[in-house]
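Recap for those who missed Tuesday's class. We walked through two folding examples back to back. For each one, the amino acid string is listed first and its predicted structure tokens come directly after. Nothing is annotated here on purpose, so try labeling regions yourself before you check the end of the notes.
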Amino acid sequence: MRVLAPSFLFFACSMPSLTAQTVRIVPDHFPTIDAAIQAAAPGDVVHVRTQPTPYPPFTIDRPVAIVGSAIDGQAPTVGVAAGAAITVNLQPGQRASVTRIDAAPTSGATLTKAVVANGGHLTLEDCRFLAGHDPAGNTGLAGVDVTDTDLVLLFTRIEGGTAAAALRATTSRVSLVSSRCFGANPNGAGVVVQDSTLHGNDAWLLGGENFLNAAGGPALVVGGASQVWLTDSTVRSGMGSPAGSAIVNSTATPVELRATVPTLALSFGGATPPPVVVGPTVVNPNLLRLRWSEQLYRRGTLRLGQPWFVHTTGPANTPVLLAFSFAPSATAALVTRQPALLPGDVAAMFLLLTDPSGTASFGGSVPNTAALVGAGLWAQSIAGTGLPFEASPFAGAVVRPY
């Protein structure tokens, strides 16, 4: 079933809470991203132009939107020699986003991270991140490392450098949509969650490959008081002697899967393959998924006036509530099993009915108001016959100025 809304008049009640913000351009107005952030007021947009040389690392310590421009598919790159390329320190309720910015270690750099985040609500959209080399292989290095953070990863690719995990989340809530997490060779994990929730849709979690006569990396490691839900995703271990397990879940809570089959990579030299899954998993056909019409790794834009569609899938012939937000501040599991939009952040809700294939769609055009630049459109679907309801991964797209 498809419901098309050609305009967004139904969001008018929420628009007064958004105000147009200043766009600060790097390097036209400021030589570095960090300088532009330090001059920015909460809600401002820092537009970063592509240049031949990498930008230096920067810190986000206030609610701002960092938006890169792409030329021939190349986005602005941040080079890091030590520490993190992007450091994010936000207070609870503050939100920031990084869109179309890449980060990688400089030549010879070791133990570097692309993103380190603590607190607040952070969106990483249409980015390419690479962690640095870990010579010892035992430091717990990760390309993106978040703590106490609401993290939304969209259309983003993360790779460990050497012996590093792609993504590690500690006491955080992660929504992973149409993104790829590649654990580093020789045995890096794709994703590690500790005391966190991970809600993925159309995600790839791949363990690192080991060609050094040792075990390959796991795709997903789950520990502490964590919960994981994955739909339409690829979860595959890395090759090795033997291969790694696809999922290593040390908790008593099953990893819930829909249209997701964990798989083992090749074990070399006659090594006995390990179990595909260590720890509990369960198939849950009631899990919801949600996808935007934007293309994966698009390096494009979601601009004012641009048309879009959201597609959600769940049980067939079932009512689904579709909630929209312009500026989410956090998520919580109030009436849902998975983290969901806070009631105060919801701009509008619509009741749809899935078709016999279980799909419902909704679309329209981005409202032509400058207040949305740097904010964006966010959606989540909710369904179920009783409390707590099922919620899809939380996803959206940042509206860009250019």
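Example two. Treat it independently of the first, because the proteins are unrelated.
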Amino acid sequence: MRIKYRGNWFDIAVTPESMIITCDQCELEATKFSFQDKIYQLKPGETLTFYLHRKSI
């Protein structure tokens, strides 16, 4: 999926095991976002990978 947020373009890929977010290379500021109660900063050109954990029943 591709989205535009505050002037930055992001590619987001989700599988049952992970979520990968990539910010396109540009001259804009880094974007802050929260995932699992932590705040992250993604700068243009960077990629973050999050591993998704399933809750046991």
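Answers for example two:
The chain has a mean pLDDT of 89.
The beta strands are 2-5, 8-14, 18-23, 31-35, 38-42, 47-51.
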